[in-house]
Design brief:
Layout: E1 3-11, E2 14-22, E3 27-31, H1 38-46, E4 53-57, E5 62-65, E6 70-71, E7 79-82, H2 94-105, H3 111-121, H4 136-149, E8 154-158, H5 166-183, E9 187-190, H6 194-200, E10 203-208, E11 211-212, E12 216-217, H7 218-221
Parallel strand pairs: 3-9, 3-10, 7-8, 8-9
Antiparallel strand pairs: 1-2, 1-4, 4-5, 5-6, 10-11, 10-12
Helix pairs in contact: 2-4, 3-4
């Protein structure tokens, strides 16, 4: 399933302009300097911010369509989102945070797939803890688990590896590549690290001053740079 968007929206003094298609089984890296509007764009796709005009949706459903007065709330879009801050539910333990998404959608992962997720994130020993008992890196891993466990139609990853050591970056990166292929998930990745972009992404788009440029395959542009 392809997630497509063509939107214009205002965020503070920045005008967001983006036309983009996220295709099944491909990871698109959204690169650009701090303040370019990357996090605002993800929030608009997720339904947390409303664009002023345009369209967001799949072949099967419109999430946002200004002409048709459609603006689905986040929980009805079926997207998995990892924000720069973990945004875990403080009153739920790790196990219930991870399963929160699929409990709302009623579509649990099969037991073997859930076990693979827990192993890849290395959170088995954390399952009974509350968010305030987690380090920043641990909370980040739980947030990734919550996004993936809901079996989303697409993943939006805003600096997902912040606070993680190299070993865990590699493990989680390999897991994301696995589900990209097995689930044919479209993914949008924001990372300031060129290494993450090179490891995970099939193509890149650059965002500057709120405007998303033309997509390029990594093979076409060489080593990407987020500066």
């Amino acid at each position: 399933m392809t997630l497509s968007l063509d939107i214009i929206g205002q965020r503070a003094d920045l005008t967001i302009r983006a036309a983009l298609s996220l295709e099944p089984g491909r990871i698109t890296a959204l690169c650009g300097p701090s303040g370019a509007g990357k996090s605002s764009l993800i929030a608009m796709i997720a339904g947390l911010l409303r664009p002023d005009d345009g369209y967001i949706g799949t072949e099967e459903e419109d999430f946002f369509n200004e002409e048709e007065y459609i603006h689905l709330p986040p929980h009805r879009r079926g997207l998995g989102v990892v924000f720069q801050d973990a945004r875990l539910m403080p009153h739920l333990n790790v196990a219930r945070n991870i399963t929160f998404g699929w409990r709302r959608r009623g579509k649990p992962l099969p037991p073997t797939a859930m076990a693979d997720l827990i192993d890849a994130l290395d959170v088995n020993d954390l399952m009974s803890r509350r968010p305030h008992q987690l380090s920043g890196g641990e909370a980040r891993r739980v947030a990734i688990g919550r996004a993936v466990a809901a079996k989303p139609i697409a993943l939006l990853l805003d600096e997902p590896f912040t606070g993680l050591d190299e070993t865990r970056r590699q493990m989680i990166g390999e897991y994301l590549l696995k589900i990209r292929d097995e689930w044919q998930l479209p993914m949008l990745l924001v990372s300031h690290r060129a290494e993450d972009v090179a490891q995970l992404s099939d193509r890149t788009v650059t965002m500057e001053n709120g405007v998303v440029g033309k997509a390029a395959n990594l093979a076409e542009e060489g080593d990407p740079d987020d500066d």
